[in-house]
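agent> Task received from the user: take the single chain below, predict its 3D structure, and emit structure tokens. No templates, no multimer pairing.
agent> Plan: (1) validate residues, (2) run structure prediction, (3) serialize to tokens, (4) report one or two observations.
agent> Step 1 OK, no nonstandard residues flagged.
tool_call: predict_structure(input=
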Amino acid sequence: MRFYQYIEYHLGQLKAKIAKLRTQLLEPPKGSSGGGEGFEVTKFGHGRVALIGFPSLHWCSLCSLELKLTIAFYRDWGVGKSTLLTMLTGTHSEAASYEFTTLTCIPGIIHYNDTKIQLLDLPGIIEGASEGKGRGRQLHILFYLFLCSSFLHSRYSMRLLISQVIAVAKSSDLVLMVLDASKSEGHRQILTKELEAVGLRLNKRPPQIYFKKKKTGGISFNSTLPLTHVDEKLCYQILHEYKIHNAEVLFREDATVDDLIDVIEGNCKYIKCAYVYNKIDVIGIDDVDKLARQPNSVVISCNLKACFAILLNLDRLLSKMWEEMGLVRVYTKPQGQQPDFSDPVVLSADRGGCTVEDFCNHIHRSLMKDVNYVLVWGTSARHYPQHCGLGHVLQDEDVVRIVKKKVLETANSSS
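)
tool_result: status=success, residues=415
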């Protein structure tokens, strides 16, 4: 038993060292200027969705006179991220048969349920991207140099491009992982592994671990339940790898070593992800049914013509996006007038909250001090209308009327 404990301690130290070195690898080099063409786009609308997937490849013969060899590449028309962006938003994103068609972030706007959702088409990610490999294996590198030599000789290296893709994905409310239905399982595992390596945790919640550095006092280790993956000695060893000798650690769940390292690093983003399986027209109906029944998955096909819109299943994709983002539309009702259903106030639990107080702050910060009570109509109300306080949680399509304090009451309270 002690032998296995030593192995666990050693593996925990190795994981901490790898995570520390990976963080240093992804940091921008010192002295690098921030000029040049920008990659990030300004946030717009009520939510942001990022498209992530593999880049496109195709058959090609590359002849090298110096090396005296001919290299043949396989054909793979990509997963259809750019085509999906064009179909959902109307924004033109170049879709072609050559490799790495999308080299920058291309935004588009989806108008759905009286809201505006920003959809971003990001450059493709390949295996090894988290290690700075933006071009794959050696044959892949030669082909990429042949096609995009001007881009590679610019100031943006591929490692910087990958870090920019991850940075934009971290700023999104939802990630759509676009996969090829014919080889979805392998691609899904590779992309998940690459995103996990750079700090993106898909469909996970933050671990219930309290961690705080201190100036003195040593390391205080406590837990509210029995732990099976981490003990006090292993926690000390991991903290020493980060040169932390004074800290307070409290486990509120049976977390793993990886969870503890994520809390210490503090740079992980826990984000929702929906898996979009494209090109379902090239596989059998049994395989389509199997993919559609997987959690957080939607099956579509961008290859079919627009006249077969029902078969595209884009309506289900939009509905899934709306469900995962958790947007809440709240309509205002002025006194003595009908509710205004044309311009809702859109709230979200990930963007401030969905309470009445959040609703008032969304309209104006100074509105809070003038609110007397609030009348609410909708699914969150027990009766119509219901007198609610600032802590009442609103639901989708609720109607709210704010009743302000009278001038006399305001003057008496100020005096």
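agent> Step 4: summary for the user.
The CA atoms of residues 326 and 349 lie 7 Å apart.
agent> Done.
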